[in-house]
Amino acid sequence: MDTPATDSTPAPTKGPLCVDLDGTLVATDTLAESFITLLKTAPWKLFAALAAWMGGRPKLKRFVVRNAPVDPVTLPYRAEVLDEMRRAREDGRQVLLITASDQGTADAIAGHIDLFDEAIGSDGENNLKADRKAEYLVSRFGAGGFQYVGDSPADLPVWKAANEAIMVCPSPSTRRAAERSVATVRVLSERPSKWKAVAKELRPHQWAKNVLLFVPLYFSHEYTDLSLVLAAVVAFLSFSFCASSIYVLNDLIDLPLDRQHRSKRKRPLAAGTLSIPGGVALSVASLALALTLATTLVNPTFVLVLLGYVVLTTAYTFVLKQKIIVDVLTLASLFTYRVFAGSVAVEVSLSPWLLAFSIFFFTSLAFVKRYAELIQIKGDPTQSLKGRNYLPADMPIIAAAGPAAGLLAVLVFALYINSPMMLMYYPRPEALWGICLILMYWIMRVWFLAARDQMHDDPVLFAVKDKISLAAGVLVVLCLLFARYA
């Protein structure tokens, strides 16, 4: 009796899982990250980097990686790609990292992740990208003998040679091109909105700080002049875009540190939803718009003030924020600088009372910012605040100096109420004493919340979102109006 024939042909396998690095495994460009580190730590090597670039992109990658290696611990890894790699390992398949990044970067990443059987990168002579990557994988595993995980149009030749195209955050055009030329296409994750990332990176909520530009106009009592009001509004927009430009620059410089912070790691550049080249373009465009507005619609002196702000904030970004006490005084000065900028925009004199109040008040808020950051690491008195020269052991000093500075601001305001010039503008100056009580309450409440670890690391952002702070602001305005018009 004949036995039925059985099919002894083994079931087809998917083959090794080959994973790209930049934009795929990590939501960033490792070469760009290394280049920023090089500019930050050894800017004098820029000319040597340009010389290496003349020899080709692989030589540039090798030079940058050797002089500013990327830290694999701080990179934004994509959880969906890591899960795909773990499933492949559980199925007994090989998992390979194959990237156009330099071999040194590939080895560092593979050593940190510990899910790869092998890591292959560019060797300093050949750029392992697009067609070259496809040829390499076909020579090892044959056409259709592997899966490939990628993200960009440069991966299309590799997907065509693979048995399955696995896509991570592809652009619509890349996805359509892959679906036309590859039999099996699978998308692990969709691309987030670039415009939402741009809007978030500009941090328009931080523009609330620039309301300080209107303060000189109010206290000069020239707010009935519509031309001055218009100049103040344009100056506000110009200063806001300038500040956003510096915010983006600061985020580019602080990428590794931001990724270790509980809230800053969600910023678009740190999270990888906005690319590093996109961040550079956004910073330049914001500054250009700011200078254009200032030049055409405000006055030449305000343009110089704006450039001075850029110089001061750039110095803070690269040097001053790492200096104990100096960083706090610089932050306070940047707030006071906004008041000064407002006076220049509307061409009115800046009151010494207002200047003194601003310095003490914003020094207190700057200390709150540092205190709120330190309280997160207070369990280890020897651990330093990342990117800042502060220890948890400094908290008692900060807790003493910060509230004192705030109360000195209230004292300055109280002395201002008693000055003879007050009667010129405020028929009922006694109503302004209510502002002293409101300020004392708000300053001490902020410090109580900071001590309880209930304060956002930016007290200005906290004030914008906090209902009690907003109510306090309304009461201050009512006191001013009553003293002026009652």
Residue-averaged pLDDT: 90
**What's the CATH class of the domain at 17-191, please?**
Alpha Beta
Count of separate DSSP helical elements: 22
- Distance from N terminus to C terminus (CA atoms, Å) equals 114 Å
Roughly how many Å is the radius of gyration?
Answer: 29 Å
The proportion of residues in beta strands is 5-15%
Morphology call: elongated
Total E-strand runs: 6
Structural features:
486 residues, alpha/beta, Rossmann fold, six-stranded parallel beta sheet, 22 helices, 6 strands, elongated
Describe this structure in words.
This protein has 486 residues and is of the alpha/beta class. It has a domain at 17-191: Rossmann fold. The protein is 59% helix and 6% strand. It has 22 helices and six strands. The chain has helices spanning 30-41, 46-54, 57-67, 79-90, 103-113, 131-141, 156-161, 172-181, 194-202, 215-219, 226-253, 255-258, 268-271, 276-297, 300-318, 326-346, 352-374, 395-417, 422-425, 433-451, 459-465, 467-485; strands at 17-19, 95-102, 118-122, 147-150, 164-168, 185-189. A six-stranded parallel β-sheet has the order 3-2-1-4-5-6, sandwiched between helices. Helix 2 (46-54) runs antiparallel to helix 3 (57-67), helix 16 runs antiparallel to helix 17 (352-374) and helix 17 (352-374) packs antiparallel against helix 18. The longest helix has 28 residues, at 226-253. It is elongated. 40% of the residues are buried. Residues 1-12 have low confidence and may be disordered.
